């Protein structure tokens, strides 16, 4: 205590002495610069001290070269270690800021203002840089994909167009050929490795941006020149952007993205571009491209069937929504369905495997049943990923697709038979073509409806061109320059031939399957075929189809030639097919019907082209071989009685139509054979001579 008290007293006396020195005048001495530097607080003293936070801990000794060495290692405190880890996490998880498309498109370097060409070049370089970054390392540069997709929403049309085109190869390269399913809630909560989490994040980002991209294409593709004629808000640039969006969708449909997510939305884009055939060349190109894309998809989906069912379902719905105001080529798209080539709905299905008895079952524990259930789930996922399909699923797709197509056909025919909607009438020929192919697969319940509608359609066409409203077979309202000739135009002739062939095909295929308990009267179809034989002969398009090489119409407004989607059967082929169905594949053929048909065929041979004439002569030869001496009298007039009268062609009396059974065919003579004997084609000349020679030999016997 004494020491402490003496120390305090010493400090007080020292402080008192300093105060006296300050108060005493002259006692204060000016300090030198050296004294100030010593007493002044230095800058390094103001800096914070860094203490050594590490401490050393002695570890186990190590023996090296026969000597035991002491090992000391540094230990970092836990608080500092946690701070460093948190800083590293922040650095790793921090992503580069994504620039908005409007800001990115409007970026300009400092200096003079860029010209439009330089600005466009700069945008191209930026889009190319983003696309190349994504393709180099997709998982690392996924933010570039987001930025590139946002550039498609830029207000400038040039930027949006370039971004849309740049994303086509990007998605084609990144997207797999299968669907990426969304993660379940349990999968989102479970802990996974960094690589798995990174892959999942990339996949979800890819699916999200692809969905937005497809939605943008669907919105832009709706704008076309045909739909925007009366709209002043739509600019030509927007119309061009809509065409580019439709072409981009077709390009994605032709790639492996047809099996990727949102494929239904992708298929809807080209389907909605199918309307009336546009007159503008650019829109017509998109129209044709959409048709070819759908045909390719339907032809390639022969083994699976899910894509075919999806496309047919969407297409049928769109056609009904448009109230059948579509082009004939759109209906012909159904003829490209390859899924129904080997479908036989009348085949007897094999009985299912018998159920195993309870005593024969192998007992499984609860754990084994759980494992088997998990294995089945894994196998199902693997099967879906490999695009595998069972025979039952494929048959189900076939039946549903066929039902959709035939239902649409029936609705179009019913609307056309009423005579109110002209749009549906223009689709009758395409529907008949489809019925000739898929009609044999129709259910028996639909057979009666189809025959009734076909008969009404045929009667409507014949009534319009009935001789009761004409004068000697010459229409009163037809111009002199009408190139079709006859009572019926080429289109009407084709519709009638398709009606006849479809009706016989439906009945015959059901009869062969043994599901025809009743008989149908098809005499009206036979009478109509006899009526139009001469009009078929003078048709200018008798042997032409869309595959024939023909000169383009100079008066046509469109530069692209008019080609139907399928529709490959010519009128000549349909005529021979109808004759074969009547006389050789059904029970409707008879000698009484063969006689008037032979006379009409010989009259038509004088006007038919070379190939059709050869085919008709071969058919007559088959009839002669089938009915024998019953037809031989037509090549000779020796046994005829003059009082029987003459053959009635059908236009002798004004306002009277002569039926096939009342044309006095017994007095008909094939004098046309003499003219065919002088035909320029040697094959036709030899064929006519051969038939006449055989008839005389058979008659003499």
TrEMBL record:
What are the residue boundaries of the Nucleolar complex-associated protein 3 N-terminal domain, all occurrences included? 123-213
Picking any one GO biological process from the record gives:
DNA replication initiation
List the biased-composition ranges (Basic and acidic residues). 8-21
Bias (Acidic residues) ranges: 82-101
The record ties this protein, via Pfam families, to: CBF, NOC3p
Provide the alphabetized UniProt keywords: Coiled coil, Nucleus, Ribosome biogenesis
Start and end residues of each CCAAT-binding factor domain? 497-687
InterPro entries associated with the record: ARM-type_fold, CCAAT-binding_factor, Noc3_N, Nucleolar_cplx-assoc_3
Chain intervals for the UniProt region annotation (Disordered): 1-61, 76-115, 350-375
Q: How is this protein named in the record? A: Nucleolar complex-associated protein 3
What organism does the record attribute this protein to?
Australozyma saopauloensis
